[in-house]
Design brief:
Layout: H1 7-14, H2 20-29, H3 33-48, H4 57-80, H5 85-122, E1 123-127, E2 134-137, E3 143-146, E4 151-155, E5 165-176, E6 185-189, E7 194-197, E8 200-207, E9 210-217, E10 220-225, E11 231-236, E12 240-244, E13 250-254, E14 268-275, H6 276-287, E15 290-293, E16 302-308, H7 312-322, E17 325-330, E18 333-338
Parallel strand pairs: 5-6, 15-18
Antiparallel strand pairs: 1-4, 2-3, 3-5, 4-5, 5-8, 6-7, 7-10, 8-9, 9-12, 10-11, 12-13, 14-16, 17-18
């Protein structure tokens, strides 16, 4: 027997007012693509009815219009003192300018209000907090594992049919399925780099300090703007790794073991002559740990090996022990110092 749900019942689901059995039935109902699109349309309607902040558009536009009217009256009063025909023509031009400026300002205000809601409606964003990972199954059958402090934006409608473009901020491991008609899967980053694939397994790191792409299986193409701001591209084979700095500088490496990509999924951290300064950046990005150094010389110390840790503090203590350093803590900040003899 095919189960159907009304809009009100789905609203109850959003409000947490359904039983565990009904929640499971709704999740099964969502496996139908037609139902999924209806579900997200109702979700958008439900979200709009429960905004945490609703701007008073009429009041805002009224204040804006009053501002321009006051400016217009002030300018007109100044022009009346001339009593000349030239002043009247200038006054008319000024009135027209203020009307045009008012209309442009209102249009800009309306766009600023509408764009965020439209953007939220057509996309869904998956996130993880510090110290968390999350596994996702996309509508086209591809799977993604998000590392800590990461967001992935995916189109709500038509994914796998019209588009397979996602936007990543953070770090993720992708396993992309090949589709007919060679529909490409594109990972866009906030650093303006794009990873274009057909079917493969790879990881992408995209944070403020740069972008890194590492390929496990298959073949991917990385598109980016180099230091000359010209569009460039490089094709990766299994075991290849490309690192981009924020300025567009590129470093290409052949990594001996491609399977090390995404080791963080199993809570393993693999370092290959990794500077301590880079490890501390990773601890900040993934676990929100504030760690300082006694002096800059400690930052060039490097680490090689594989270490397991479930928490950021645990990894920090392991790194300190291997590098023969002490850890001092004051409130919520750690400092690595050389051991006293």
């Amino acid at each position: 027997m095919r189960i159907t749900f009304s809009k009100q019942r789905i609203f109850d689901y959003f409000d947490g007012k359904v039983t565990p059995l009904e929640a499971k039935q709704i999740e099964e109902w969502l496996e139908d693509q037609e139902n999924e699109e209806r579900f997200y349309a109702w979700l958008h309607e439900w979200e709009l009815a429960r905004l945490q902040y609703t701007p008073d558009q009429d009041r805002g536009i009224g204040k804006l219009r009053s501002f321009f009217d006051k400016k217009e009256r002030t300018h007109a009063a100044g022009m009346q003192t001339t009593g000349s025909h030239q002043g009247s023509r200038s006054q008319m031009k000024t009135r027209i300018w203020y009307r045009m400026a008012w209309c442009a300002a209102v249009a800009t205000l309306l766009v600023a209000i509408a764009v965020p809601f439209y953007h939220k409606f057509i996309n869904v964003t998956y996130t993880t907090g510090y110290g968390e990972t999350r596994s996702l199954l996309l509508p086209d059958g591809s799977s993604v594992v998000l590392n800590a402090n990461t967001s992935l934006q995916v189109p709500r409608f038509g994914f796998g049919n019209d588009t397979r473009e996602v936007v990543l901020h953070g770090e993720a491991l992708f396993s992309v399925v090949h589709m007919d008609r060679d529909r490409k899967f594109v990972v866009k980053t906030l650093n303006a780099a794009e990873v274009v694939v057909l079917g493969t397994e790879f990881s992408v790191f995209a944070r403020s300090r740069g972008t890194r792409v590492k390929l496990n299986k298959g073949k991917v193409e990385l598109r980016y703007r180099g230091t000359d701001r010209q569009l460039s591209q490089v094709v990766l084979a299994p075991g290849d790794q490309v690192t981009l700095d924020p300025g567009g500088g590129m470093v290409f490496e052949e990594v001996a073991k491609a399977e090390t990509s995404g080791s963080w999924v199993a809570r393993q951290f693999r370092f290959e002559k990794t500077p301590l300064s880079e490890i501390l950046q990773m601890l900040s990005e993934n676990y929100d740990l504030k760690v300082g150094l006694e002096n800059d010389e400690l930052g060039v110390l490097s680490l090689t090996g594989t270490y397991e840790a479930n928490r950021g503090e645990e990894l920090l203590l392991t790194v300190a022990e291997v590098l023969d350093l002490d850890v001092k803590k004051e409130k919520d900040k750690y400092t690595l110092v050389s051991k006293s003899e």
